[in-house]
């Protein structure tokens, strides 16, 4: 049976603002791939042959995506239109109007408040130059016996955050200390490596900045982690983020574990400076799309932004390795 081939011209408008930390140059891509199942091929405007596409593939004017009989691909456009393309189909990307435009598959229109910045899925040219240099370094570790993990040099959306850390040896107990610019707010002793925000302490102020550290105590000695800073979103912004999280999750309620959901959430968090939340989303994406290098590039950039250079190097090394394997 002859496969059905459908060509579509998608009309898109660049209705977003470029985020300086991820793109200093005007964003060129009109769409990105946020989910792939099966064999999906890409033919760029300057090539004659189709090559394998992967998560995060950037689509520009004149590019074509083709699905096989066992594949599905989902695309997020710069105007926050979300399209699912079924088997045996071809989609052409264009910024020009055409009477050939027609709908296919599942089309979602994300609200203007949910507008996703496509630059979150790209690495700017200057960053590209640094990726090879960073990834070529050997990961080093200035001996931190206690390493804070979250919150870590980021904005957060809650006034009652949980705290976590990693210990490279065993301690009898840990003391967590939280400060603001006026001095110490509280000190709590725990036996594990996590602490939920204490019920008996006043919640943090929205819009406030804080820093914390952990001491590990043994019978006759103790070790201390480095201090780490974090800030809480304003109350208005925190409510906005909470509302939009619900809207995004509801939009993808029938696919709660999809990389498309995590892609939209990750990009949304980057736009709002919630870097640790974004890292969590892109870690999930990297596991779902195990052969894609871009999630690791994005993680490398995010870890660099929060000051975790060792983790950034490891992610960029993974990205280079996957990129080499895909070109074989």
Number of beta strands: 19
What form results from the Cα inertia axes? elongated
Computed CA radius of gyration, to the nearest angstrom: 22 Å
Number of domains: 3
Main pleated-sheet profile: 6 strands, mixed
N- and C-termini, Cα separation:
33 Å
Question: Could you describe the 3D structure shown?
Answer:
With 328 residues, this protein is of the alpha+beta class. The protein folds into three domains: 7-115, no CATH class; 128-138 and 234-326, Alpha Horseshoe (Serine Threonine Protein Phosphatase 5, Tetratricopeptide repeat), CATH 1.25.40; 158-229, Immunoglobulin-like. The protein is 26% helix and 28% strand. It has six helices and 19 strands. It has helices at 125-135, 235-251, 259-271, 275-288, 294-306, 309-326; strands spanning 7-11, 31-37, 40-43, 51-52, 58-59, 64-67, 72-77, 81-85, 90-94, 106-109, 146-150, 155-156, 163-167, 173-180, 183-190, 194-195, 209-217, 222-224, 228-232. The strands form four sheets. Strands 12, 14, 15, 17, 18 and 19 form a six-stranded mixed beta sheet that branches. A five-stranded mixed beta sheet has the order 1-9-6-3-4, with no helix packed on it. A hairpin with a 4-residue loop joins β17 and β18. α1 packs across α6 (309-326), α3 runs antiparallel to α4 (275-288) and α4 (275-288) packs antiparallel against α5. The chain is elongated, with a radius of gyration of 22 Å. The two termini are 33 Å apart. The model is unreliable at 1-27 and 97-104 (pLDDT under 50).
